[in-house]
Amino acid sequence: MSDSxxxxxxxxxxxxxxxxxxxxxxxxxCPDCNSNLDILYNYELxxxxxxxxxxxxxxxxxxxxxxxxxxxxxxxxxLSMQSGGTPLLSFPQIQTEIGKINLYVKDDxxxxxxxxxxxxxxxxxxxxxxxxxxxxxxxSTGNAAASLAALxxxxxxxxxxxxxxxxxxxxxxxxxxxxxxxYPVEGTYDDAFDLSMLVAEANKWYSRSTGINPVLAxxxxxxxxxxxxxxxxxxxxxxxxxxxxxxxxAGVHKAFLDLVRLGWTSKLPQLIAVQAxxxxxxxxxxxxxxxxxxxxxxxVADSISVxxxxxxxxxxxxxxxxxxxxxxxxDDEILTAQYRLSKNTGIFAEPAAAxxxxxxLKAMRLGKVFEGESIVILASGSxxxxxxxxxxxxxxxxxxxxxxxxxxxxxxxHQSK
Length: 417
What we know:
6-stranded mixed sheet
């Protein structure tokens, strides 16, 4: 690391025991208690070298516009692969249905591989490059793997993927299409994760696995930085985040903490973790007030299907510090919200991404969303990654006679649907 980087990035702090570590050598977790780490920045220095006005001068809309708050020396030379810079959208047709609530959708389905995971991958690959590591390994139910495969192809790195054999075929196809090495694991995501750590250690490869690499949350936090900038630093009241391992919600929390520490805002949004009822480890921990326990995950939302969230400690900390809450939604609520989101906005989100919409709708029913609030729903991945899931709520029409009368009858029958 250069002198300027070591001055800007101070090192690591353990989320569990609070012990601090220097920036070098790079470590994944706390050597003392095995908890995850948080990256520490020199905010006083960053304030001296960076400002909102300086940010406005950056020509690219990608996540690299936030480089002073990222744990790498320099952006890549080739910035044409735009990770981040996704739109924050509002929809009047939904406003009429939900009343006086200002609703926005952060559409991260538009990232290069179709998911928010590209943000983490972009930073992870750059970090691996600066460490001189050429092969990157990841465990994933599909999105992180497809993201790594895609960006590794662009940046000419070797990607090794361990994914549950039960992952949606579209995601496995993406991985193979990008020419990554795919090892389908007989078991769950947690099984793939455990094996990936053994593989990374045995081969001295860089691990991109969500939930243990502190660099990844720094990439994911850029979605929060973008939301703040796109709202002209008027921070939303609540952000609904689909939550599996907990890395995304931890990253979003870090984004707003960064902005508070820089003095760019004084407010933290309430962060709402939305989990599937079939994978509710974080919801259970918050509801019971007890330490997080392993569950047996079973949900249509594969991207948030996790037995034991690897970044759960950070996620729970983020929820509590933001005065947010966690909410569990059923598979039926997820698929219904997926269709409603597509029908009303044109955003085709995969089940895990649509879970945030389901969580918002359920929170409204429970009286946890209030008139006049500004709400952001995080759409984290494209529905094209798991079309069979969406087909559970739709019916493809049968072939019809090729004449005008049949067409008019057909239209009349379907106009009310």
